[in-house]
Amino acid sequence: MALVTFLYCLYLVAPILLLVVGSFGTSWTNSLLPSGMTFDWYLEVAGDSSFQRAFLTSLQVVVATCVINVLLGVPFAYAVFSAANRGVRLAARIFTLLPVAVPELVLGFGFIIVFSSNYAPWLGTTWLLICAHVVLTLPYLVGTLLGDMDRLGIAGMERVAETLGAGFWQRFRDIVVPSLRYSLLSGLMMVTAISIGEFQISNLVAGFLSRTYPVVLLQAFYGATGLACAATVVLIVLALMAACASAAGAHFSHFRQKARP
């Protein structure tokens, strides 16, 4: 088992390590490792106007996606959690997970068919790209919030507050939202990591001026290999930072639950 685990980890890490090595190589053609040593590829990525525009677009999409996820995800998760009928809760959970079960390619073709018509000619706009990212990421935030609502015992705290005369909005403001702050942070970091690296549906619905970083990154591999490797390493670092922040938020949420008397 140790050997199998090692080989599996090597299989996962080796391509990333080769990308890191290739981002510092002067030339990489028909060989296992690149030749030479240079930092120019990172400077070229930083100075490339297409990467700059794509990075800003990705940043706008991520920020808007996170904001919309909060505005939709928190009330929706609370409504599902508070539903007395178990059938309603199950149906809501299944409906929420549909974007995860359906392939992104199918969702992308659906967006193309609907939003390239004369009645809704919005294909290629930034806001449609944001909507697509919300559809893909909202299930992850809702799932995180629902799981932590069960673990944190919010239902019991709400019943106690209700016996003391607290109304719905007071319970939601003073109990639900503060209790979920670490869970919300963890979920949003997960949303950020997914949105940053999302390619399939972005490549289908984004316009020329609304291309995200991964879409431009694919086109870079048709040019200089070192430039593409450097741009990929930047994307990997951003995704890892978001994933680590999500893991830290989940850890603090779990620690807080254990420390509660």
Give me a quick take on this structure.
The protein is mostly helical.
Walkthrough of the structure:
The chain has helices at 2-23, 40-47, 49-82, 86-101, 104-115, 126-152, 154-163, 168-179, 181-197, 200-205, 213-220, 225-259. The mean pLDDT is 83. The two termini are 40 Å apart. With 261 residues, it is mostly helical. Helix 1 crosses helix 12 (225-259).
Quick tags:
single chain; 261 residues
What's the end-to-end separation, in Å?
40 Å
What percent of residues are in strands?
A: under 5%
Quick one: how many beta strands?
0
Uncertain segments: none
Topology diagram in text:
Blueprint lengths: L1 H22 L16 H8 L1 H34 L3 H16 L2 H12 L10 H27 L1 H10 L4 H12 L1 H17 L2 H6 L7 H8 L4 H35 L2
